[in-house]
Amino acid sequence: MATAYNKTQRTDELCKSLRNIFITGASGCIGHYVIEALLSEPDLHLYLLIRNRGKLLLHWTDIQGGRVTLVDGDMLTIEKHEPLLKQMDMVIHLAAAWGGDDVARAVNVTKTLELFNLLDRDRCQKILYFSTASLLDRDNRPVEVASEAGTAYIRTKFEMLMRRGQIKLRDRTITIFPTLVFGGDEFHPYSHISSGLTDITRWIFLIRFFKAEGSFHFLHAFDIAQVTRHLLMSLVQTGDWVLGNPELHVNDCIEQISHYYDKPVYFRIPLPVRFARKVAPYFGARLSPWDDYCIEHRYFTHKVVNPSTFQVPTQFPDVNSILKKYG
Hints:
The structure is a single chain. The chain contains eleven helices and 14 strands. The chain has helices at 29-38, 82-85, 101-117, 152-162, 192-202, 204-207, 221-233, 250-260, 273-279, 289-296, 319-326, and strands at residues 3-4, 19-24, 44-50, 68-72, 90-93, 126-130, 173-178, 180-182, 210-211, 215-216, 218-220, 239-243, 248-249, 269-270. The chain has an eight-stranded parallel β-sheet, covered by helices on one side. β2 (19-24), α1 (29-38) and β3 form a beta-alpha-beta unit.
């Protein structure tokens, strides 16, 4: 079973023969897949910062010989774990706050910097920090408008990106930018995209007769975990990595979904951008300034990597593989 971290535990009693990995955001969709991938590495001991144990599925910890330790707490009180953080060889920072300006800035910026700067420079070998590809343009450069029009999440993630120079271990920090994330099943929490896929497939009988401008990348959390494990265990020490399968045009995506469900496409009616704005409220969507920006700049194209970049098999390389899992 997973063990609980005891603050009175002597540091010389921590696992000496294993490399210690501190992971935040472990109870999320990507977190579950990352933990599962890392448990295949026999020389790692995983310390999971957990705010709510009820959200963590522990089926894979029962057979891992005590190589998983649960650390009760959250990012807002990360300083309480300084003694433990000094013992970490690597860190994977997945946790993020989505709503509320004060909390988002505290978690996504202030406490993130504090977490990184509590690490022992003489011991910690590598930091993997998860950001979001929403902040980047087609050349993987930060988009300045994110600092103004973005949601609290987007604005604070942009601020953290701009403040990476304040990380004392900047020379061994890898930043990961996921694109759209699919993932989830009975053993893993569902991502927001996977949860909403049912609504898309339900309306495909109608959607197939429209066409719209736009493109995007996606990657399944399983494949994100494979890249994460590679970057953690390889000689890569720094860099920015945008994760995604090759660019997919919206119309091609609709055609592939239609074909999967045997729904012929006889004609396509162009869907103006202004129409999307008008129908959004009928689907319960309230458009923010950031939503408006994304609608106007709807080609979300980046220079991406995925497992195949590193000669690792990609389990979910296309729409068809996603539909086989969730359709």
